[in-house]
Amino acid sequence: MDILSFDQLASRPGGTPTFIGADHGATVSFFVERAGPGEGPPKHRHPYDETFVVIEGTLEFTVEGVTKGVGPGEIVVAPARAWHSFTNRTDAPALSVNIHAADRMETEWWSDRAEGTDAAR
């Protein structure tokens, strides 16, 4: 049994802890996202489901054009290939665990698609 700390998963001190399942023999990957006021990723999608567990604060999620506020103890699922984003629209920080149903994360950004570039990452 391996036990990892958030510090081991962050690419830099204070960075976003990122667990890549393939690196640890797991079939899922995740971020531990700390979103300050006004922060959050722009519109994007994945070829697999992404599940968000909000731990602290409130985040505004948009999934396939539907926008809702989500608070502590609530869960959002963005289905595979669904365009989605979230933003912290409050004055307080938010904390969520963003679970990718894949051993490696793959993201297509809306802005790359609009520009006609190859967006898979």
Automatic annotation (TrEMBL):
Entry protein name: Cupin 2 conserved barrel domain protein
PANTHER family the record matches: LIGAND BINDING DOMAIN PROTEIN, PUTATIVE (AFU_ORTHOLOGUE AFUA_6G14370)-RELATED, QUERCETIN 2,3-DIOXYGENASE-RELATED
Cupin type-2 domain boundaries: 34-95
Family annotation (CDD domains): cupin_RmlC-like
Superkingdom to which the source organism belongs: Bacteria
Any Pfam family hit: Cupin_2
Source organism (scientific name): Beutenbergia cavernae (strain ATCC BAA-8 / DSM 12333 / CCUG 43141 / JCM 11478 / NBRC 16432 / NCIMB 13614 / HKI 0122)
Residues making up the signal peptide according to the UniProt record: none
